[in-house]
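Appendix B, example 12.
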Amino acid sequence: MDRSLAPPIRLLETIPFAEAKKIKLSKNVEAYLVAGGKKNIIRLQTFIKASRWHEPKKLVAQICARMLKEGTKNYTAKALAEKIDFYGATISTKAHYDYVSITLYTLKKFLPQTLALQNEILTNAIFPEKELNTIINNSIQQLKVNLEKTDYIASTGFLSEVFGANHPYGYEVCQQDYEALNTDNLKKFYQQHYPQSAKVYISGKFDDGDIAIIQSNYGSLFNGYQSTIKLPNYEFVYHPTKKIITTPNCLQAAIRVGGPTIAKTHADRYCLNILNIIIGGYFGSRLMKNIREEKGYTYSINSTIQSYLNGNYFLISTEVGKDVCDAAVNEIFVELKRLRTEPIGDSELQLVKNYICGALLHLIDGPFKATGVLKDLYDFGLDTRYFANYINKVKSVTANELLACAQKYLKEEALTQVIARC
């Protein structure tokens, strides 16, 4: 072997990615199983429809999820935390835009005990007023800090412009929204939405005996209750705009450029994903080379495509020195114009193809990562064929196809600019 010669680079032929095994834990609970790993650790992720889309007023879903561990009928918050620590487990709760997630990491040998603790917060949370007041006060203080940060202001402002100020994905919060919350709001929301059906993703090193234990625990958790609350119709007509938000005493300006885009299921999404990588989706992207390496305007700049169940957007984001803000925005649009007017060179396209194939392998490395990818697919009615098709598209895509895609979906006049600066 001549170690002075680099090995040949080969594009990925296939991706070793299997579907999750789907079972029913009960009439109202579907489970997806992804076995793997060498350590005796199991992760259970329970997803419930109790998100922003279902709340009667702002912040109810977020604070409800946050308070699930702040006291139950049988445990104080401190006692519950000590019990979870005793078994070497972690339980985290979070309200996402489309779901609430309850994530349990547990040692295999303590699965029955930790499941009982998880069940406690899912069925017996009491939302004590003292703890709620503490969370509200802390949240208000954090909000005041965030409202002095240009990155926070620009990000929330961008979503508001893209989806609408009253939309679940776009609304912004203020101190009065926190102060309007009370325990009755949270208890009612908890009682109406947490008993409904759920999806559970089980990953790690488990066997049939563990699944039987999980099944016996989940069997009585969710009764399939359907709330009679009619959800509002969040219609919003998007109009591209340029918005400058003045922030006193800032050190940096925050730039957000983007707008609504096509769904993950759209036939053109593969090409758009590749364009996103080229423009700002990896460390060697065009935006990084131009605005970081050549101009020195920023430490980091990136682009992303975010897909939710009820909306999708493309976004370029960065923070730059306030004195070079206008120049940075101009360079962003210079790079977008290049994508629309100049075919991508062979060497750059080959480099990006190699990067994407390697990134896909890293994305599914281990059962926990693979489970996250599978959930993102299943949420949109997709399966692992999505990645097989993606690889085929990466291998076959041409510069002219990408040029046409950029001209279709990255038009300058369709993009919103939100800039927070002094």
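The first helix runs from residue 60 to 66. The first strand starts at residue 21 and ends at 26.
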